[in-house]
Amino acid sequence: MNLLTIAIKSIRQRLLASSLTGLSVALGVALMVAVLVINGVIGRMFSQSGSGYDLIIGPKGSDLQLVLSSIYRVSPPIENLPWRFYTQIRERRDIEHAIPIALGDTTEEGGFPIVGTIPQYFGVEYAHGRKFLVKGDFLQGTWDAVIGAEVARKNGWDVGSKFRMIHGGQDDHVHEEQFTVRGVLKRTGTPNDRSVFVHLDGFFQIDGHGKPLEEAINREADFFGVSPETVREWYGDDLAHAEEEEADGHDHDHAHDHEVLDAQKEVTSILVVMKTRNNNPLTRTTGSLMLKNELKEGFQAQGVNPIEVMRRLMDNLVGNVRLALLYLTGLIIAVSGIGIFVSIYNSMADRKREIAIMRALGARRQTVFSVILAESILLCLGGGLFGLLLGHGLVFAAAPLVEARSGLLIDPFAFEPIELVLFPVLIVLASLIGFLPGLTAYRTDVADALSN
User: Fold this and answer.
1) What percent of the chain is modeled with pLDDT above 90?
2) Of 145, 158, 183, 415, whose CB has the highest number of CB atoms within 10 Å?
3) What is the 3-state secondary structure (H, E, C) of the chain?
4) For residue 282, what pLDDT is reported?
């Protein structure tokens, strides 16, 4: 009979106590695994989402809110930018891509965020070295849409499906216009999976999305710091004609193409990719810093680097919470180890005769010591293995809840390589726990134990 078999039989003799001590280890390991996996998934998503863009340009305000709304779509937009400002950014010679997005609406089914944008959105890497793949086509016509993989799965949509949207998330106002799904994105592991992309032209033509002319003129005048008369001069005869139609009470049929004046268009933010000069990637960084500082000096808009903003959030908030949870779970595992130590050590008084018989039958002191050490290691590793499975079960169960409450996608099958470090740590912990009881067994006096 080998040492492992003896240790297993010894554990089975004290099944209840052994199970409870092993369970305490399992709970600590499960909590630590859940923290590591969820933190790793969120950290990767935050680091890669938006990493394909050098800057996000939006209205003055919170840089964090700008990133959360434009990239992660879990926060309401700050304000909007005039279309004229977007065209000025787009025409800059140091910018490779300037992609406008318009937010605010959600799908009637599922409540997924609507992103009004242009086909160029899908031509830019959404993360470093990663491009969009699609089943079907990207945005082509005015009333075309592309949906994320999660939207397709939950709503049961595919190419050819039609849908309507709710204005500004208000349940009581559903737009009559319909968009047709022309493409389904392959899963990216980013907020794009739970977003619906519609052609920006169609987004502007939806009833209520174009600003009333007088309000649009005044807002644009305030933004650029000019008079309303100057704004009218910018648009000339087109503005005069549109004002005449509005004064006559002319209305457009829903879901039919009609002209929307540029003065009435607004975008939530602009995703910017700077030009690379002389094949030097650093020129993109330099160009984005210069543009960011240029915007900072004005009063119209701000430019933020999404990676910097999310790294600051992760370090200052999420990172501290993660460390606190890891310390807590480490303490739980340590307390569980103490429980195993107490259980084994207390059992030594009842096992002196058993140990003495083993010695009398020829077992060496080292063998008895090894049996006690094997028991400790088996309890820790058994609890750790069960805790690993339980931790991933918690992640699997929590993934849909996290997505529903925060909009963040958690891969229920995610695995963190650092989890493998837990088992060597448990072996070391078990060795420390089993050393003193093993030493007690090692020093057991055979004659005294048998006589008593």
Assistant:
1) 23
2) 145
3) CCHHHHHHHHHHHCHHHHHHHHHHHHHHHHHHHHHHHHHHHHHHHHHHCCCCCCEEEEECCCHHHHHHHHHHCCCCCCCCEEHHHHHHHHCCCCEEEEEEEECCCEECCCCCEEEEECHHHHHCCCECCECCCEEECCCCCCCEEEECHHHHHHHCCCCCCEECEEHHHCCCCECCCCEEEEEEECCCCCHHHHCEEEEHHHHHHCCCCCCCHHHHHHHHHHHHCCCHHHHHHHHHHHHHHHHHHHHCCCCCCCCCCCCCCHHHCEECEEEEEECCECCECHHHHHHHHHHHHHHHHCCCEEEECHHHHHHHHHHHHHHHHHHHHHHHHHHHHHHHHHHHHHHHHHHHHHCHHHHHHHHHCCCCHHHHHHHHHHHHHHHHHHHHHHHHHHHHHHHHHHHHHHHHHHCCCCCCCCCCHHHHHHHHHHHHHHHHHHHHHHHHHHCCCHHHHHHC
4) 82
Give the residue with greater pLDDT, 256 vs 317: 317
Contact 386, 26 (CB under 8 A): yes
- Nearest 5°: the CA angle 339, 343, 349 is 150
What's CA 403's distance to the chain center, in Å?
9
Take residue 110 and report the two structure tokens written for it: 């599922």
Q: Are strands 144-147 and 196-199 parallel, antiparallel or unpaired?
A: antiparallel
Q: What is the pLDDT of residue 13?
A: 75
What's the CA gap between 330 and 326, in Å, rounded? 6
Are the CB atoms for 319 and 35 separated by under 8 Å?
no
Distance of alpha carbon 436 from alpha carbon 450, whole angstroms: 22
Q: Scan for tokens 């229920």, then name that residue.
A: 412
What is the bridge-based pairing of β-strands 301-304 and 55-59?
antiparallel
287-304 pLDDT, tens digit each: 889 999 999 887 789 999
Measured distance between the N- and C-terminal CA atoms of the chain, rounded to whole angstroms: 27
pLDDT of amino acid 254: 47
Which amino acid belongs to residue 374? A
For the entire predicted model, the pTM comes to 0.71
Beta pairing class for 81-82 and 301-304:
unpaired
